[in-house]
Amino acid sequence: MKAGAYLPLLVSLLLALCGHVAAEPLTLAEGVRIVTQDSHVVKIRQQEERISEADTLIARSRLLPNVNAGASQTYLEYEPAVRLSPTLSAPTAEKDFYGYRLSAQQLLFDFFGASSLYKASKSILETKRLDTKRTRNLVALQFVFLYLDVLESERLITVVEKEAEALDAQVKLSRDLYAAGAITKNDLLQAEVKLSDARQKLITAKNIRKITGARLNALLARPPLSSVEVSDPANGSPDALQLEEGFEVAAKERAEIQIVDLTMTALGYEEAARNSEYFPRFLAEGRYDYAKNRYQVHEGYWSVNFLMNINLFSGGATGAEIEKVRSHKLKLSQERKRLIDDVRLEVEKYYLDQVNSTERLGVTEGAIAQAEENLRISRVKYTEGVGVATEVTDAIALLALARTNYFRARYDQQRARAGYAYAIGRDLRDVYP
Questions:
Q1: Which of 83, 89, 101, 194 registers the highest number of CB atoms within 10 A of its CB?
Q2: DSSP track, 345-404
Q3: Tens-place pLDDT, residues 239-268
Q4: What is the pTM of this model?
């Protein structure tokens, strides 16, 4: 058999494999793992973290020795000499010579200026790590919400399909009864209009599913039109805490509050560093200098120097920097109070959403059974000629409404519990392992 004959078989096999992979559903836990690793926003925060880590190395370098080396080559027009008398001179250096120098300078004490800047940079690095954690958790929450939106849209499609099937059966029954002269044409027309409306709602529901799926793909960094299959979470929703307990946990665990606290700590170190500029800096320097000169007894020599530097006047810059840091600390103090209020409101919102959706879920579960019984009775009455068409179509609409309310309450409850877990500072990767 020629090699080209295998091509159609190979293509069919690849398509079958691709179809099998595409049909495999994406679990909620797997999706959370993907978005927290591959999200563009998370990767940006990780790069900011690496930049801050480099800043800490720069700050630490001020505490380490500063080593320098240099070399030179000199060409003079005349050989340097010293005049001993009006007629007598003696050379002091060669006309052409080279030299080199090696020096090491170490900060001894600067009233904790450099060490404070290093500690401040480490605190800022920790805030960047917390910001990466916060961003990762926020992206995970957005994914959970979108994932549940996709699930809800699929369930609502099923509800509308069942409504359309029930109305289609009603239209067929009405046609038979109209042909037998048991009902008027108005009853038939009414059923056909309701069926048309249900089919339009089905088109809208499917479009919503496509749009929601595209948004989910965008968050997963996939092509918008690629197929995505979802399934209900196997591990259910995270356990809920009491409201006051949630407030206490959020105050300790929310990354935003921790970031503010660490930033204030960093500003405290920065203020100490600025204050150190009013005091002298003590340094030690060791050097080796060599210059080729046959007229010198020693061409190279070692030296040790102890230095002191002090800034006598900087135009008020140091005082302004200190005042700036203090104002920033006061600003952060107020922002922390506002942030705690916002976090408490967020915790309370999701807690109340849980309570509300749980109560709705309990009500709608019973409503479905009641609506199904109502539809059965209405159909029996209509078939026996003691009921009217509107009773059946209204019963079908009520059953669809009950099912819609049930699924919305069900996924609202899961969204509220996921939001509550985020609001109190829990890592959603642990919530959906």
A1: 194
A2: HHHHHHHHHHHHHHHHHHHHHHHHHHHHHHHHHHHHHHHTTSS-HHHHHHHHHHHHHHHH
A3: 556 788 889 999 999 999 999 999 999 999
A4: 0.82
